[in-house]
Amino acid sequence: MMRGAQERRRRSSGGWVKRSAVGVALALLVPFGVSAAGVAGTANAAFDPSAFDFWVDSSAGMGPVKTRVFRAADGNTDRVVYALDGMRAQPVLNGWENDTDVARALTAANINVVMPVGGESSFYADWASPSTFLGVPGGTGSGSLSSSGSASGSSSGSGAFQLMSGGPGKSYRYTWETFLTQDLRNALRDRLGFRATRNGVFGLSMGGSAALTLAAYHPDQFSFAGSFSGYLNVSAPGMREALRLAMVDAGGYNIDSMALPWSPAWLRMDPFVFAPLLKNNNTRLWVSAASAIPGAGDVTSFMSVIQGMPLEALALVNTRAFQARMLSIGASNVTYDFPATGVHNWQNWAAEVYRMIPDLSNNIG
Fold it and tell me: Which of 53, 88, 172, 327 could form a disulfide with 37, with the two C-beta atoms 3.0–4.6 Å apart?
């Protein structure tokens, strides 16, 4: 009986490794033109006139950074949530505004919504250095996020041709964590009267990973964090190289400029590694990933399925690994949601926000 139990555990462990390897392989096989950011959209919500631009200077050299702010329906300043974009974040609008209408539901729930703009391929982290390849700096792109830089790779899939181009995070060092937790936080408090503690933060894909990172290391600011299709086990075999390709594709960024392999800075970004912090902080978490099986509305085109399925499969493997890690340390502060259908797209992320709102509302302010 003991040998049988050991054999079952071995098969289970082997199956997990195989599933992880398959997930990574699928991501590596995705053709250029796709990244871990938002593949297929639904109706394009685009510019929302109810929001306003909120410019804040970065104290760490990123220049003036634009944020879009949506005010709560009841006018309160206590309930605040930050909405983080995906890997193809653009310099004009945050994807949550451009591709969804979730801000309307959040403000109707009397929550102020803060949408930072820009940060393509940044993981909202403080990078080790500007993004360069072989020590060659990027081109003559602007040193400010107010400039669009060279964004063609994000829309056309030509990111590999931008390896030596200028633009955000290339002519200067990304310092997004510092900006979000110091500069923007303080400006929202001082200029709008927003509460600077017990805020929420959520994001999709790259932004989902970043939301958990921000909550882990800034528990006074964030009492709630949500990750949708996030990469929550980035030190797993093959993950760094999968992300390397995705970041090259999404604007031509070098992951080694963000953090060196297996360095303290890299491990600091891995939710699987810092999971105990989230448990000890008692941060309320909402963590989700879909099955990668297309559902109603996911098949907007052949490419939307070909692109969206492998990315969601990889996110699901990562998210399940994070779930297992949290369960292993006895964490009970997480709501998990694994929809039976859904691929890597805005339709499914928006639906997840609607499901999350009651939990978010009860755990901020």
Answer: 88
Three-class SS of 297-325: CCCCCHHHHHHHHHHHHHHHHHHHHHHHH
Sign of CA dihedral 334, 89, 309, 315: negative
- Give the model confidence (pLDDT) of 190-206 as tens digits: 999 999 999 999 999 99
SS3 (DSSP) at 177 = helix
Q: What is the pLDDT of residues 247-272, one digit of tens each?
A: 999 999 999 999 999 999 999 999 99
- What is the residue whose two structure tokens read 């926000």? 353
**Tokens 């949500």 label which residue?**
226
Contact by Cβ (8 Å): 151, 37:
no
What angle, 0 to 180 degrees and rounded to 10, lies between the N-to-C axes of helices 2-29 and 239-249? 20
pLDDT (tens digit per residue) in 111-122: 999 999 999 999
Q: How far apart are the first and last CA of the chain?
A: 53
**CATH code of the domain covering residue 58:** 3.40.50.1820
Provide the annotated active-site residues. Answer: 205, 312, 344
Domain count, the chain: 1
The two beta strands, 80-84 and 112-116, are: parallel
Name the maximum alpha-carbon separation found in the chain: 68
Based on DSSP, count helices (H) and strands (E) in the chain, helices before strands: 13, 8
**Single pTM value for the model:** 0.85
Which residue type is seen at 267? L
CB 166 within 8 A of CB 138: yes
Phi-psi region of 347 (alpha: psi -120 to 50; beta: other; left: phi over 0): alpha
